[in-house]
Design brief:
homodimer, alpha/beta, Rossmann fold, 6-stranded parallel beta sheet, 17% strand
Chain lengths: 341, 341
Amino acid sequence: MSTRYLLLAEGSSGDPLYGKTMRGVLRYRRQDVAAILDSTRAGESEAGVPIVARVEEALPLEPTTALVGVVTQGGYFPPAWMELLRTCVEHGLDVENGLHVFLADDPELARLARERGVELRDLRRPPADLSTATGENLAVDATIVLTVGSDCAIGKMTVSCELDLEARRRGLRSVFVPTGQTGMVVAGWGIAVDAVVADFLGGAAERLVVEGGNRGGELLWVEGQGSLVHPVYSGVTLGLYHGSVPHLLVLCHEAGRTEIEGAGGGPHPIPPLRELVELHERTALPARPARVAAVALNTRALGEQDARAAIAAAEADTGLPADDPVRFGATKLVDAVLAAR
Amino acid sequence: MSTRYLLLAEGSSGDPLYGKTMRGVLRYRRQDVAAILDSTRAGESEAGVPIVARVEEALPLEPTTALVGVVTQGGYFPPAWMELLRTCVEHGLDVENGLHVFLADDPELARLARERGVELRDLRRPPADLSTATGENLAVDATIVLTVGSDCAIGKMTVSCELDLEARRRGLRSVFVPTGQTGMVVAGWGIAVDAVVADFLGGAAERLVVEGGNRGGELLWVEGQGSLVHPVYSGVTLGLYHGSVPHLLVLCHEAGRTEIEGAGGGPHPIPPLRELVELHERTALPARPARVAAVALNTRALGEQDARAAIAAAEADTGLPADDPVRFGATKLVDAVLAAR
């Protein structure tokens, strides 16, 4: 039986930041989504998928798996969710969870899951045999392209997916390399690098690009995480950068955003794009210099004319090709990456 | 009863890289070390501490605690060590362990420890309530000084300790902030930041500087980890950098070292010192700009004349005060830091 998801997004299915797992799955695995649970929007629909208030209402749509579609900062579980998860398990649904707290470690839920014969899959649980990077990453025979960005939650995973889809349309042996829980749901493999022991960040990133090569990729699109200028998550960003040894970078930015969002102690200003380009090229490993090939601009908040103006401004600022691959297609950015190879 | 250590350094007590925990403890807590265990050097001594071949031979010296004094890359336990640790526990010694593998998770050793009434202390076990950084770090009312460097195992902890000792000699309210297992043994508190969940790197560093402030420090010397140009550990380095929000940096380097040591897939060249200065200042958070105040040069491999020449060359290259604080005292570097405040 193939997976059919019930997306758990209680109270958040309309929130652009905290519903990002939900939106990623709706964009790239929509055919596998039976329903969305969010009592605050029951009766509506999202991307053609019905929104229900209770687990029981979703059952006629035959979901197999409840997916935690909300990501909270720090990744802990709101206590009220446990009751909802128990209800899912009682109805025979597997549960996939992308938070830092592992459901399988909850004795009561684990016992219930055993009784009902369902699986609790903790996407952020690192492989047990993970260790430090060995240098095998530098031997991967593929062009490695990492998305980097000015902040979290601006669409780095989306850009990697869109460029991968466009490259595959062109007949290239292209592989999307997932590094976070949403990417893992979309692609069905990967490691959530933000959840590994910090010393093993490079080792996790290395394992992912080696696996991407083993999957036959001549072009690997590595999902970026966080930002080098993010006060909370920059360690993950640099560990992933150095461990995935990209040849090329695609710099992602949300048009109009001038400060890191959701980080305390600020303001935390975002430097101009040309400075971000220089910063990223400057921080590449000497053993694997990397260039920014293009700028991917998220223009979702703008009208079309303003979006085109923002793209032109990004090109003028950086001297690089820029586009919004979701809004205007990925042709230009894939052209830029292939030209820079 | 105060702690008296038996340092377990089997086969490594003479190795400059892998005996670094041992050497750190010998330098800064020598008065609390009863003996060193290394059968390959039995009968010799190190820093005036006798080296023995077997645990039993150390018992007349009344150790209370066996300390794993060897750090391996990746931090796993050589299997042969387990037998040695069982012997220590059987003789009633507590065990402190700084590797990534936790002794308390070994059911047999844990059972044995309970039977004998001894403690297994895993220094790298992160606090259970750790989470992401909040911004509280930026409110710490102290001058924060982080050691950074060109590679691992070149003496960043040593430099932080030496500068702290010199500042305390001058009557300043100075606190050494430990971020790794050796520093934790030396100071009796801290978090091994390389062992936390990667997303919580900044949160761990933040907690440490907040604690340093709570301990009354007007000057916090934060022990650095890894290197921004290290292919394996750079994520830890940047997470610690941004999470500890230093005002000033002391750049540590081993004179004559031109490549990162022990990392696969290389060569991994070390950039010139002036480039390292610029790289570190360039990667500071916009909310907390940091300047390199001085260069700490490890000249242990050189004769005195060559050491003085290397220090002069570092000063000429960077335009900053440079010195080897272990060899020539910490006066000049502390002067430089205080002048840069």
